[in-house]
Amino acid sequence: MLSKFLISKFIKNYQDINNKEVRDSYGYLGGSVGIVLNLVLFTTKLIIGIISNSIAITADAFNNLSDVASSVITILGFKLASKPADREHPFGHGRLEYISGLIVSFIVILVGFEFIKTSFDKIIHPSKVIFKLIPFILILASIGAKLWISRFNKIMGKAIKSSALEASSTDALSDVVSSSCVALSLLLSIWIDFPLDGYIGILVSLIIIYAGYSLIKKTMNPLLGEAPDIELVNGIRSKLLSFDHITGCHDLVIHNYGPGRCMGSIHAEVPCDMSIVKIHEIIDEAEKEISDEFSLYLVIHMDPINKTDKEVNASRLELLNILKSFSIIKSIHDFRIVGEGNHKNLIFDVVIDFDPKFSESDELKLQDDINIALKKSYPYYNAIMTIDRDYIGV
């Protein structure tokens, strides 16, 4: 309820998430709320840590201080990512949002390592943790606050598909776990004299480090070039096939230059005997409509397919029947026949699932096996094929 109130109160036209300014406002709001809340938590926990002589609480306090820096970096990331394209960066600066998330991840890990060292010192030189009701209640309150900020960032991150805000949500959730460990340390100190504080401080630090590692993996994926979202892939394919005279599509490639800044290319199968002017008009219309609907820049390559030649159709069916014995093969495309008389080449692309264990030598063997199987029934045919690996899995 509070999350929706803040979003509607501080973000004008908040439902128009495809609007660049609205999207930036989400990022600024998430960062600003994070700064205010984490400053309050840092101050509160630092005071509690000093009063109760707890290194675990103090470690947790400085973790909140690092979250303030993280929120500042998130705001800067959105600000810099919104810069328009220039000569050096023709597709804009959108990836800076991912880089800001990566910086936040490294800060989280750095804080974790720093407090492992502090916790070891506490184990070597222990001092008694004194349980006090008010500090304990304030720690529980901070857990509730972190649960809310995690949910708040998750809602906004999902709304605008921001890995930076979703990373902040994950970071806040890790704080919930670490603060819970601190609360447990305080509670157990009532009955146990053993210096648990340093050991729980190490546990808190390890949780922080793991959270940072997880965030690095998540923010690195779009920078390295992760596979596109399955819903986006299916949506583009379905929309493209809805246009007249486009009978198939394949080889979809999407490049991510930041949230809302994607460029894609796809091959569309069209009749080879159709007017090139007419099919070009259809392709132009498809490019524009799909680009507008899915907020990307799409380029469509035309693959002319012969649907009327009897020999081509018969040969394609014969080949498909032979390929049924190869379970690894998902489909074929770009099928055509080159040559005359008793020596003809069947040229086509074979689609197989992506498998890192399937090597180049395995590809060559697959090609040989297909040719052997083809020549048993049709000795005058020779298969010339290209192996396409399906990285998307649909």
UniProtKB/TrEMBL annotation:
<feature type="domain" description="Cation efflux protein transmembrane">
    <location>
        <begin position="33"/>
        <end position="223"/>
    </location>
</feature>
<protein>
    <submittedName>
        <fullName>Cation transporter</fullName>
    </submittedName>
</protein>
<feature type="transmembrane region" description="Helical">
    <location>
        <begin position="96"/>
        <end position="117"/>
    </location>
</feature>
<keyword id="KW-0812">Transmembrane</keyword>
<dbReference type="InterPro" id="IPR050291">
    <property type="entry name" value="CDF_Transporter"/>
</dbReference>
<feature type="transmembrane region" description="Helical">
    <location>
        <begin position="26"/>
        <end position="48"/>
    </location>
</feature>
<dbReference type="GO" id="GO:0016020">
    <property type="term" value="C:membrane"/>
</dbReference>
<dbReference type="InterPro" id="IPR036837">
    <property type="entry name" value="Cation_efflux_CTD_sf"/>
</dbReference>
<feature type="domain" description="Cation efflux protein cytoplasmic">
    <location>
        <begin position="230"/>
        <end position="304"/>
    </location>
</feature>
<comment type="similarity">
    <text>Belongs to the cation diffusion facilitator (CDF) transporter (TC 2.A.4) family.</text>
</comment>
<dbReference type="GO" id="GO:0008324">
    <property type="term" value="F:monoatomic cation transmembrane transporter activity"/>
</dbReference>
<dbReference type="InterPro" id="IPR027469">
    <property type="entry name" value="Cation_efflux_TMD_sf"/>
</dbReference>
<keyword id="KW-0472">Membrane</keyword>
<dbReference type="InterPro" id="IPR027470">
    <property type="entry name" value="Cation_efflux_CTD"/>
</dbReference>
<dbReference type="Pfam" id="PF01545">
    <property type="entry name" value="Cation_efflux"/>
</dbReference>
<dbReference type="Pfam" id="PF16916">
    <property type="entry name" value="ZT_dimer"/>
</dbReference>
<feature type="transmembrane region" description="Helical">
    <location>
        <begin position="129"/>
        <end position="149"/>
    </location>
</feature>
<keyword id="KW-0813">Transport</keyword>
<dbReference type="InterPro" id="IPR058533">
    <property type="entry name" value="Cation_efflux_TM"/>
</dbReference>
<keyword id="KW-1133">Transmembrane helix</keyword>
<dbReference type="InterPro" id="IPR002524">
    <property type="entry name" value="Cation_efflux"/>
</dbReference>
<feature type="transmembrane region" description="Helical">
    <location>
        <begin position="198"/>
        <end position="216"/>
    </location>
</feature>
